[in-house]
Amino acid sequence: MEKVTLGHGSGGRLTQNLIQTILSVFPEQNLTSNLEDCALIWGKIGVTIDSFTVSPRDFPGGDIGELAICGSANDLAVRGVLPRFIAMSVVAEEGLHMAELSRYMKSAARICEDLNIQLVAGDTKVVPKGHVEGLFITTCAVGEQITEESLGMDRLQPGDKIIASTSIGRHGAAIGASRFNLNPENLKSDCAPLWPALKPLLALKGLRCMRDCTRGGLGTVMCEWAEGRNIGITLVEKQIPIRIAVQSICDILGFDPLYLACEGCAAIAVAPDDADRALGLLRESSLCEEAAVIGTVTEDHAGMVALQTEIGGMRVVDMPVGEMLPRIC
Amino acid sequence: MEKVTLGHGSGGRLTQNLIQTILSVFPEQNLTSNLEDCALIWGKIGVTIDSFTVSPRDFPGGDIGELAICGSANDLAVRGVLPRFIAMSVVAEEGLHMAELSRYMKSAARICEDLNIQLVAGDTKVVPKGHVEGLFITTCAVGEQITEESLGMDRLQPGDKIIASTSIGRHGAAIGASRFNLNPENLKSDCAPLWPALKPLLALKGLRCMRDCTRGGLGTVMCEWAEGRNIGITLVEKQIPIRIAVQSICDILGFDPLYLACEGCAAIAVAPDDADRALGLLRESSLCEEAAVIGTVTEDHAGMVALQTEIGGMRVVDMPVGEMLPRIC
Q1: Which residues on A lie below 8 Å from B127 (Cβ)?
Q2: Choosing a second label site near B60 at 20 to 30 A (CA), which of A54, A132, B103, B301?
Q3: Architecture of domain B153-317
Q4: What is the pLDDT of residues B281-325, one digit of tens each?
């Protein structure tokens, strides 16, 4: 009998299967047609939900409290939805130190304050020791769409340029390094709220769509776009910003940085004429100084992502099937 | 150093402390002033969030999937908010049977269909075996308030009648019985959506406020009202509907039915002139045939709940401090 495996939590192919299993039992009229990470209800209100099970709960560059607000708020931001409200549910293991919980809540509150987000509803559950490992937080973010368009992948067009808003894979590399007791000094998660950096882009006529590259990384987002729209995407390896520390962790642990989670990096598609302007706007944010054009949408190899490698070859970027690292977010 | 205990998950006094610990780190402008279970944002939109960790996941009268939709939808219903949308996040343990997950999702889908609720956003996480016991589901329900008033406890007035919409404690008793392998044939959880039964009440001018009696039971809701408004509430023991099977489980396991969780029972306060009309409307629903007036709001014993016992005495109903039964919902 089929069982849920860690691979089903990877964000890749098996996660799609798991989601399909869940959705298949809902009658069609009980589903919104567009199941992007952020749903739009009543036309202009964005809603998203995410559970955070990250381990360790404290990681270089952030903690589970900060991640729980950034993660949900970023799902709204990439749809042009101003994050306004958060509902938060905490499931804690008996024996968790209250001071530790308090610390995560302070991190969460700090991000809420930075973004002017109100905490409006909450729930707390405590389960017996051993029934949950430490602390899981679920957040539902609600906000108002301030763009005319909903910035879904349906807007992608051949010729569009793909931009990475910053260097990729830092969250996954930081978690992976912590997990294996490798702690390079200059490696931190990129966990951060995207709204301030992305907001100026919303005024660009040529802005097509955006997605935050979380679990599954940039590679998975590219595959979802290519498959979802049956278009081709060509990425240029040497243009993809990857910090040396991230590449080193990948070399040591055998990870592919394309699939490593980010928590403060968006993939952005823009009309070619607006690519330079978009880069300029992004780089005004201290979080996006590494922003770069990394590829192009194409009519070739429909449904597939191709990577032009540094040595001049081409390889297929497929959606990951298994799980490199569980409990990344 | 203070640790989170099971008592913090009871829904009673310690849960209030835990919530206070969390809220105390948020600056005031980042909190809604009214932290009832269901928040009202932009004036007329209701939002609530709840995590469900119930064990066993299948219980007499329902399962975790059904509970996850009813629980959140009921938090809206008691505020006069029509449940319209659900965001759902699933955290599954590696090794969970896919067929079991599918079954719970079918239960969830059935309730969504009954109530015409759309699933709009979701998340799935898989954590390694032993990091979560089975399956936790978090739901965030969103809907539109269809009443003029927001039906909060601020509307309570001395003289108001308190109604229980059905017999109390069935969910807690069913879970408790399962946990101890007592399975009386005629004992089932009351888990059910409240909206259809409560909707007709919304037209009553004398309707003051409503609350679904979940974790902590009727007793805890009464204490929250009395303390929250600094008014007295007198309950009449012999008028409180309790089924024999529930009372038997309480006698065997040493539970007080006043504090046992319900998942399809609302406490309702109405002006005295409207009490009979409210009872009549409730009893039109097959779920509320046992509805009864169980007490009165009074100017006496402000901040306290008194129970007029069957033998003619009076006793204080205090908020529970510890935890009778963890993972009830």
Answers
A1: 9, 53, 133, 326-327
A2: A132
A3: Alpha-Beta Complex (3.90)
A4: 999 999 999 999 999 999 999 999 999 999 999 999 999 887 778
CA distance A18 to A5: 10
Distance from chain centroid for Cα B182: 24
A232 within 8 A of A303, measured Cβ to Cβ: yes
Residues facing A259 on adjacent strands: none
Of the two residues A173 and A32, the one the predictor is more confident about is: A173
The pLDDT score that the predictor gives to residue A149 is 85
DSSP bridge pairs for A31: B119
* Portion 50-69 of B in contact with A at CB < 8 A: 50-51, 53, 55
B92–A contact, CB cutoff 8 A = yes
Minimum CA–CA partner of A101 in chain B: B22
Helical spans, DSSP H, in chain A: 13-23, 64-77, 98-115, 170-179, 195-198, 217-229, 244-253, 275-283
The residue extents of the domains of chain A are: 32-145, 153-317
Residues contacting B92, CB < 8 A, separation 6+? A4, A8, A9, B101, B124, B125, B126, B127, B132, B134, B135
Residue A238: CA count within 13 A, CB half-sphere: 6
* Interchain proximity A327–B131, CB inside 8 Å: yes
Residues A108-165: pLDDT tens digits?
Answer: 999 999 999 999 999 999 999 999 999 999 999 999 999 988 898 999 999 999 999 9
Token pair 């935890």 is at which residue? Answer: B323
CATH no., domain A32-145: 3.30.1330.10
Please tell me the predicted confidence (pLDDT) of residue A29: 79
What's the confidence (pLDDT) of residue A33? 58
